[in-house]
Amino acid sequence: MAHVLRDIRPLDQVRSIKVKLGLVVLGSVAATVGAINFAIYVGVHARFAFVAGLIISLVVIQLLAHGMVLPLRQMAAATRAMAAGDYSQRITATAQDEVGSLARSFNTMASQLDRAERQRRELVANVSHELRTPIAALRARLENLADGVEALDEAAVTAMLRGTERLSILVDQLLELSQFESGSVRLNPQRFGLAEAIEDAVAEVGPVRPDVRIAVTADCGLTGAGDTARVHEILTNLLTNAVRHSPEGGTVTVSARPAPGAVRIEVSDQGPGIPAADIERIFDRFYRVDAAREAGSGGAGLGLAIARSIVELHGGSIRAEQRIPSGCRIVTELPN
Ligand SMILES: Nc1ncnc2c1ncn2[C@@H]1O[C@H](COP(=O)(O)OP(=O)(O)OP(=O)(O)O)[C@@H](O)[C@H]1O
Ligand SMILES: [Mg+2]
Predict the structure, then answer these.
(1) Are residues 49 and 132 in the same domain?
(2) Alpha-carbon gap, residue 150 to 155, rounded angstroms
């Protein structure tokens, strides 16, 4: 019974809270007058008729106004729950008036906060995990050296140096991503030659895999507009991925062409490519298609997230495509 009463909301479809209040007042006055008249008509004493009228008026108010304050009560309870860290509560938002619209906005805000909180937790877990692995490896090695189990030779020093380099790259990447997220990154846009920008990136990344050929096709004199240091970062990230996934003796192709209102840069390789199910997600932070395989090659899964942030800050777009028969192509468009 209580459940049925709770679901009765006769004024839910009224679009204004002022009209609702008016209807409640009119309804209660009409009910009171009707009850008093009826009681007097059947011969009840005027004093009892008045009391009966008041009771009926209260019942009518309760019936009509029910549902008007419920969302407000729920909102108060949900805000208290949020303050305590629980973002799961939602408000009954069936009313069409201003309170209903407030309840719907509240639900949207609660969902966004819920998602942001989940992402924050995931980020902390990912960061801790990514930092823990190289730190644990370094520590184990240092303990071995301290115990005399391992000799302090060149190989040990080189391995530890590589471990600390990996750590500092990771910390730099995290710092950079947080700057993109806080909106504190300012671009220094200028006109630059695409061919030169690509050659610079190739000169930096090429030596990492001397067995992989990098072929560049860029229209001579083609220029782009953007922050050259940031564009260099996009290119080195894409080239690093391409050479990392290339088969022995493979070829990576980089091309730059004019596109309507933009320049299109494509980086293609002959590696295993990216499965269709992962193609959208590879730009997410820490996302790796095969985490176990990629971990060995040193990537934390942040390079493409950084590249996407830079491209978006320039007002451009970036996407991955599967090449036929195999391989991956990353297509970047930067406004010109
Ligand atoms: N050219 C490619 N061929 C195949 N898979 C790729 C290629 N580029 C990226 N990927 C996949 O996308 C994932 C994300 O790439 P991303 O550059 O963000 O991270 P990463 O290279 O693993 O690490 P980081 O760039 O932080 O060193 C990679 O782990 C890999 O699984
Ligand atoms: Mg990468």
Answers:
(1) no
(2) 11
Please give the residue range of the domain that contains residue 254: 190-335
168/139 same-domain check: yes
Domains in the chain, number? 3
Among residues 110, 145, 171, the one where a domain terminates is: 110
In short, whether 269's Cβ falls inside 6 Å of ligand 1 is yes
Closest ligand to C-alpha of residue 245 is: 1
Q: Is the pLDDT of residue 10 over 80?
A: no
Residue of 304, 319, 328 best suited for mutating to test ligand 1, as the one with most atoms within 8 Å of CB: 304
pLDDT tens for each residue of 25-74: 898 899 888 888 888 888 888 888 888 888 988 988 888 877 788 888 89
* Within-domain flag for 52: yes
Vertex 203, ends 202 and 206: CA angle to 5°? 65
Residue 115 lies in a domain: no
Task: Indicate if ligand 1 lies below 6 Å from the C-beta of 310.
Answer: no
Hey, which of 35-39, 68-72, 162-166, 230-234 has the most confident mean pLDDT? 230-234
Mark which of 61, 81, 110 sits at the end of a domain: 110
pTM metric for this prediction:
0.76
109: left (phi over 0), alpha (psi -120 to 50) or beta: alpha
Distance CA 6, CA 104 (A): 19
Nearest atom within ligand 1 for CA of residue 327? 3
Q: Which residue's alpha carbon is at the smallest distance from atom 7 of ligand 1?
A: 241
Using the mean position of ligand 2's atoms as its centre, give its distance from the Cα of residue 240 in Å. 6
